[in-house]
Design goal:
The complex is a heterodimer of chains A (203) and B (330). Chain A contains six helices and six strands; from the N terminus they run αβββαβββαααα. By secondary structure, chain A is an alpha+beta fold. Chain B is an alpha+beta fold. The radius of gyration of chain B is 20 Å and the shape is globular. The chains are: A alpha+beta (203), B alpha+beta (330).
Chain lengths: 203, 330
């Protein structure tokens, strides 16, 4: 995003910062790199804005109360629950949905790994699992501990199955494809890391 | 969900002005609890004042303590290097709460203000003195597995759901607030209230006041601290019982002890008498067992949660024993 685009978004964010109860207001969401204008009431969730207004139906509505994780999207690279998010709070922020995970038209290594390892059965939770896993791997690579990390003050954590399960606990799969999901995430994480490693060697 | 007006505040003065004091407006943080309650029509504010863009800093104080801005995200606090080193119990307590997604949204101030997850509070068809003062309580004779065993009243047996707040209670934190009449500081253990006959009044906050930050004072002993939580599934569930503990042992004798319990009361439960019993006692199983008994003295359960009393005692004793071993190993 250019500076002028940023400034424009900030100006719009400032303008949209007050809305009456009956106001429908026009806000700008940055979704998968595109500027999308949408007219909403303050009560509209980010999930409904994405699905019903922008017709990005990859993001799923499961419980609509923060229990299942099917609605997970990334905001500025961090995973959140779009069902508990009011769209108006996310004006001008970089939102990534499952539609934005593929790279130049081909599946990301994580998406491919979900297919290779049968990381789903019905597929309803998959977009949330994928977005959550992307955010989770970034948290892990940033050294963020979890509830199962033995020593939170320690700088090194193993990318173990125990860690993966704990960190993915906000995403339910009622088909029970958890084993495949863990396998896919483990493989995608190690692939990315071996690529980073090789890139370092070739320098 | 009923519609509402929305305004985003750019500083605390503006936030307080926008909120007013009619009670019809509410502050909005990450929304993880408030938006859910609004969808259920339990909360029906006429307007929301978004305070997520203010007060996010985590600041190290000269005395060795930290001050955490009220809009700091739970995930940012849990990951903060200084907090992980000096107050691991706080980092752990946050990581034991919610899911990765929820922690990225939730704010520290919002965590303090979250409402109970009592099923009867959430169910508009049930009687609840929190929702409708004087209506009665359907939890007392209902399914009360998750409910209080300490400090409850005949009007309310709900528990406070936070993990983070249990650690803050153990760490002698304070809550900094700002209102039209100026700023004041509230001791963390006095911030949340017991239900008494006004269970709808949950905190010491006055109408129109804004939480601006939480301060944790220096406590060297807290480098050896831990949070443990027992729940019905191993992740993403509220506590049946949880314990935040700090233990410093010198020459086999307890020098410093801090103990707080979660999942047992209407507020994070600081176990002061148990700490006093520990102070100066030999760091052994007998002392830890006595402290556990002291902490649960006066506890009384209901049809489905009597088990919490014994569970809490065992959790306290084993947590203290683990910490003593850790301390001995250093």
């Amino acid at each position: 995003m250019t500076h002028s685009q940023n400034a424009e978004l900030e100006r719009q964010a400032a303008e949209s910062s007050v809305a009456g109860p009956d106001n429908r207001l026009r806000i700008t969401l940055m979704v998968n790199g595109d500027r999308r204008e949408v007219e909403i009431e303050p009560r509209v969730s980010l999930l409904d804005a994405l699905r019903e207004r922008l017709h990005l139906t990859g993001t799923k509505k499961g419980c609509d109360q923060g229990a299942c994780g099917a609605c997970t999207v990334l905001v500025n690279g961090e995973r959140i629950l779009s069902c508990l998010a009011l769209a108006i709070q996310y004006t001008g922020q970089e939102i990534t949905t499952v539609e934005g995970l593929a790279l130049d038209g081909s599946l990301s290594p994580l998406q491919q790994a979900f297919i290779t390892h049968d990381g789903f059965q019905c597929g309803y939770c998959t977009s949330g699992q994928l977005c959550s896993a992307v955010g989770m791997m970034r948290e892990f690579d940033d050294g963020v501990p979890s509830a199962v990390t033995a020593d939170v003050a320690s700088g090194t954590i193993d990318f173990s199955d125990t860690e993966i399960k704990e960190r993915m606990s906000g995403n339910l799969c009622r088909c029970g494809a958890y084993v495949g999901i863990c396998d896919a995430i483990r493989e995608a994480h190690s692939e990315v890391h071996s690529e980073v490693h090789h890139a370092g060697e070739s320098r | 969900m009923r519609n509402f007006a929305y305004a985003k505040a750019s500083n605390s003065t503006e936030a307080i002005r926008l909120l007013g004091h009619s009670g019809a407006a509410k502050f909005l943080g990450g929304g993880t609890n408030l938006v859910d309650l609004m969808r259920e029509n339990i909360e029906q504010p006429e307007s929301l004042v978004d305070i997520t863009s203010l007060l996010r800093e985590i600041q190290e104080n000269a005395d060795g303590g930290v001050t955490i801005g009220a809009a700091a995200r739970n995930s940012a606090v849990a990951a903060h290097r200084t907090i992980r080193e000096r107050f691991p119990v706080l980092s752990q307590a946050i990581l034991f709460g919610g899911s990765g997604q929820v922690r990225n949204m939730a704010t520290i101030g919002g965590n303090l203000m979250q409402r109970t997850r009592c099923d009867y509070f959430y169910d508009a068809a049930s009687r609840c003195n929190k929702r409708t003062p004087g209506a009665g309580c359907d939890a007392i004779d209902g399914f009360n597995r998750m409910h209080a065993i300490l400090g409850w009243s005949p009007d309310c047996i709900a528990t406070h759901p936070s993990d983070m707040c249990v650690a803050l209670a153990a760490l002698d934190a304070s809550v900094e607030v700002e209102g039209r009449d100026g700023k004041r500081s509230i001791r963390f253990t006095e911030f949340h209230r017991l239900p008494g006959n006004t269970p709808h009044v949950e905190t010491d906050l006055r109408p129109g006041e804004l939480i601006t930050s939480v301060t944790i004072p220096k406590l060297d002993a807290a480098r050896r601290s831990v949070y443990r939580k027992v729940r019905d599934r191993s992740s993403y569930a509220f506590a049946l019982v949880s314990v935040a503990a700090v233990l410093e042992v010198e020459n086999g004798v307890v020098k410093t002890a801090r103990l707080a319990l979660g999942g047992v009361a209407h507020k994070p439960w600081r176990a002061g008498p148990a700490e006093e019993a520990l102070q100066g006692s030999p760091a052994n199983e007998a002392s830890f067992g006595r402290a556990a008994d002291t902490a649960l003295a006066g506890a009384k359960g209901f049809a489905h949660n009597e088990f919490k009393i014994e569970l809490a005692k065992r959790l306290i004793a084993s947590t203290l024993a683990d910490l003593a071993r850790k301390d001995g190993a250093r």
